Amino acid sequence: MPLDYDPFSDAAMRDPFPLYAAMRAEGRPHFIPQYNAWALARFADVWEASMHHEADVTWTAGALPTQLLLDEPVPHAFTTMDAPDHRKWRGVVRREYTPEGVRAHESRIRTLVREVLEPLVARGSFDLYSDYANRVFCLNSGYNLGLPREDAISWRALIDDMIHRDRGQRGSSERNQRAAAELGGYLAEYVQMLRRHPDRASGHTAAYMNTEIDGRRLDDQDMVNLLMNFLIVGSETTPMVCAGALYYLERHPAQKAAVLADHALVQQLFLETARFDQPTNMLCRRAVRDFTLGGADISTGQDLLYIYASANRDEAEFERADEFDIFRRHERDLTYGAGGHKCLGMHLATMAGVIVIEEFLKAAGDYAVLVEECERAYGEHLSGFLHVPVQTTTKREA
Ligand code: HEM
Is 87 near ligand 1, meaning CB less than 6 Å away? Predict the structure, then answer.
């Protein structure tokens, strides 16, 4: 029977990994006739498309499956621009995200992490994702944007509502759209307030407000789109990896013992979790030329699903790909994508993710994840854990 893959089906939104394995076994990109789209499930295909076909696809038709496959609106921001515009807009904050740019924030982030963690560890039981890691990354992306602290937290709650999927939901619901409109409204008011008081703008907000691109200042809608984008990407995926890392350690006691004994292994732990349980799941592009990829003839106008979560589990690229192993060595992966749109925040994600896990281990020592109560994301866009309850025995190291 031909494989029936639909990214919005209940099976794919609940647990796509068996479908991904079946598509990889087909040995070529998988065509989805109802969307006139190709699913790239193999590592080699996503890599090849990212590295060698940038000029053959456009980002302007959208990046999310709902935008390309279901024609939902596409906000104008650099994540949905092609070169050369993409490079100019991304370039405004690029320096902040180099390894040196990120290192300049290390001690501030460590202080923030300790501040969030201390009362939680004193409590003894909390949720690693929502109470801890997600809160840290919300506050940090709020800081990067120059937002008031409490707004960063409440606006994140709206983002959760924007991406929430009910069982069987296909595309955006009224709840998703209401949350998006509400957040857009708050951000618009915030931008207007900054227009009246430019001295109050800081971080990326100030950088974008004070710049000219091709001789033009960014308008209010540009600013709202950028703020929303940074708020989402800066707080969405990394906390899932942090919470997932501590979950997977719980499931692999020998690796847990090794990490508890030597915190220098935390970076390997973070990166293996991001490979094994890639949180971005997939992003999409549209072909603007005919080209051949992995034995498939792609035609102009067809959509391509770059399924990172599947590519990172490809046996043709990773030995024992379905095994979680923090000691594995590999040359390359697609955790942060590849090519000109490669994740801008990758150095920040790795550095801050490591700090979040390290500080937790220092403060909590051994810990117990309530594995039966953990919950994974449901939907087409994200993959990974959204609820990881934990119990700690208080312990603080210097
Ligand atoms: C473990 C955490 C993260 C993962 C797995 C991840 C993954 C990705 C992936 C796969 C892409 C698409 C790359 C491509 O198209 O080739 C991307 C893009 C992006 N990421 Fe991340 N990301 C993470 C954290 C972050 C953080 C903390 C930020 C903070 C600002 C961030 C900002 C961005 C931006 C702005 C883009 C769009 C880049 C562009 O279009 O030029 N990411 N990310």
Answer: no
